[in-house]
Amino acid sequence: MENASESAKHVTCEFFLDVELLCIVRDQAVFDFGEEVRIIKLHNCEAQAGEVGRLALFHTRHGERWQFRPYRLSNWRRVPNLDTPSCWTWRCIRTGEVTTTAIGTLPSHTLTAHLPSEDELDGLPF
Question: Which residue from 27, 58, 59 is spatially nearest to 40, judged by alpha carbons?
Answer without folding.
Answer: 27
